[in-house]
Amino acid sequence: MTNNNPIGIFDSGFGGLTVMSEIIKALPFESLIYFGDTAHVPYGSKSKNTVVKYSKEITSFLIKYRVKLIVIACNTASAFALPVLQKTLKIPVIGVIEPGAKAAVAASKNKKIGVIGTEGTINSGSYLKEINKISKSKVYQQPCPLFVPLVEEGWNNGPITDSIVKKYIEPLLNKEIDTLVLGCTHYPLLRKTLSKTLGKSITLIDSAKATAKEVNNILNKTHILSNGKCRKFLKFYVSDNPGKFKKIGGRFFSKKIDDVKKIEME
Ligand code: DGL
Predict the structure, then answer these.
(1) Do 91 and 216 lie in a common domain?
(2) Are 160 and 253 part of one and the same domain?
(3) Confidence of residue 265 (pLDDT cuts 50, 70, 90)
(4) Which atom of ligand 1 is nearest the CA belonging to 121?
(5) Residue span of the structural domain in which 224 resides
(6) Which atom of ligand 1 is nearest to the CA of 117?
(7) CATH of the domain at 110
(8) Whose CA is nearest to atom 8 of ligand 1?
(9) Which tens digit of pLDDT belongs to each residue from 77-110?
(10) What single DSSP character describes residue 14?
(11) pTM attached to this predicted model
(12) If you measure from the C-alpha of residue 185 to the centroid of ligand 1, how many angstroms do you get, rounded to a whole number?
């Protein structure tokens, strides 16, 4: 494995591009290969077995490109597939949940932490477990299944989104949380709307930033940081509809995505 091999990153679709953006900012000399499983999105409402099966197929694809490290940018796939992939792959595999949990514990003063995510992520209890490994914080969880379709529709704000956000968030407000983990790739795009309901005193934790930091740490520790003077490439692959990926992906990536290739999964 050479230092100049790319980092592989995958998600159920577009959402992981929020994580990729942060990795790009944190690591200017790394090449990246992104895979969005647009044929199977959303993962948030699927069973563990199904998400693990898809995740294994995607990582087999990424390994063919000789990636030196894999980032599971999807919260649901991190919740369900991280342990299996860490056991079976010979390269480091990082999910978004542990970095997000650590950042939440560091931010919370009153040790009352809220977590929002897909049904899969919340039902897995993964954030709860990670937070409890490092702190005796009280954790209050809330699945928000309508947030993903709202964001994909571009409805990041407006009266309908305001009222849906209120409905999901209100139960957490009674718990006096001072920190809220945005435990889904799409939720950073709802930051402004969430802040309206939450007020200024609740800190929002975006796992994407924390994950990018963790990728940097691991590359450093394992001595596989790129030693090039510039980034060689960013590549994008999907399992369906590259046109839609380019169009919607741009919103998550805040940059135009020009070249996306469709892959037939085995
Ligand atoms: N990427 C997923 C996550 O972070 C959200 C979209 C989906 O349900 O597939 O959990």
Answers:
(1) yes
(2) no
(3) confident
(4) 10
(5) 7-95+209-262
(6) 10
(7) 3.40.50.1860
(8) 44
(9) 999 999 999 999 999 999 999 999 999 999 999 9
(10) S
(11) 0.96
(12) 6
Has residue 1 got a pLDDT over 70?
no
Q: Tell me how many degrees the CA angle 73-52-206 measures, rounded to the nearest 5.
A: 20
pLDDT digits (tens, 9 = 90+) for 204-224: 999 999 999 999 999 999 999
Do 98 and 150 contact (CB within 8 A), yes or no?
no
Instruction: Name the residue with the closest Cα to ligand 1, atom 1.
Output: 74
Query: Both 89 and 214 in a single domain?
Result: yes
Residues with catalytic annotation?
74, 184
- Ligand 1 closest atom vs CA 118: 10
Q: Are residues 188 and 127 in the same domain?
A: yes
Q: Which residues have any ligand 1 atom within 6 Å of their CB? A: 11-13, 15, 41-44, 74-76, 118, 121, 148, 184-186
Q: Could you give the number of structural domains in the chain? A: 2
**The tokens of 10 are what?**
């995958």
- Mutational pocket test of ligand 1: of 127, 150, 185, 238, the residue with most ligand atoms within 8 Å of the beta carbon: 185
Q: 253 near 188, Cβ under 8 Å?
A: no
Distance in Å, CA 253 to ligand 1 centroid = 15
Both 116 and 169 in a single domain? yes
Average pLDDT of the chain? 96
Q: Is 36 part of any domain? A: yes
193 shares a domain with 102:
yes
Instruction: Enter the tokens of residue 8.
Output: 């592989």
CA-CA-CA-CA torsion sign (102, 224, 185, 54): negative
Q: Which phi and psi (to 5°) does residue 259 adopt? A: -120, 115
Q: What is the pLDDT of residues 165-204, one digit of tens each?
A: 999 999 999 999 999 999 999 999 999 999 999 998 999 9
118/89 same-domain check: no
Cα(111) to ligand 1 centroid in Å equals 26
- Domain presence at residue 2: no
